[in-house]
Design a protein that fits this description.
The chain is an all-alpha fold and about 140 residues long. It has one domain. Helices cover about 75% and strands about 0% of the residues. It contains 5 helices and no strands. It has helices at about 1-30, 40, 50-70, 75-100, 105-125. The protein is globular.
Length: about 140
Amino acid sequence: MAFSKWCEKYGMFFLRISFGIISLWFGLISLLDPSSLGVFVNGFGINAVGVMSLIVGVAALLLSVMFFIGFFTKVAAIVAIVISVIGLVSLFLVESFKTGFPYLSTLGAFLVKDFIVLAAAFVLASAKDIPLSLDNLFK
């Protein structure tokens, strides 16, 4: 019972920090390895991978800071929802037309993981109180 109460109290904090880690990771990957966005950008015939990587990388790093310090957490979660939906739809559409639906593959696992991230972003966006957050100072 005590663990359940602890999870209830701090679960949203850990979810917020998890989103900060995910955003930091993808931001750094986008900036340090611009080719990492190639599957998304090239699939749509866009030849500006470097520019897109810079934009995505900086945006993801900004989101990571927002998540880590808990500043405009709901806005950051909504942005994460939009990014997740764009990523899921674009990856699914591009790869489905190339190879068919990515059943039991690394890409398929990536898509499934993104659905979990999307669901968690909805939970974070709808949270009433997130402990240890700057948002709590402005209530």
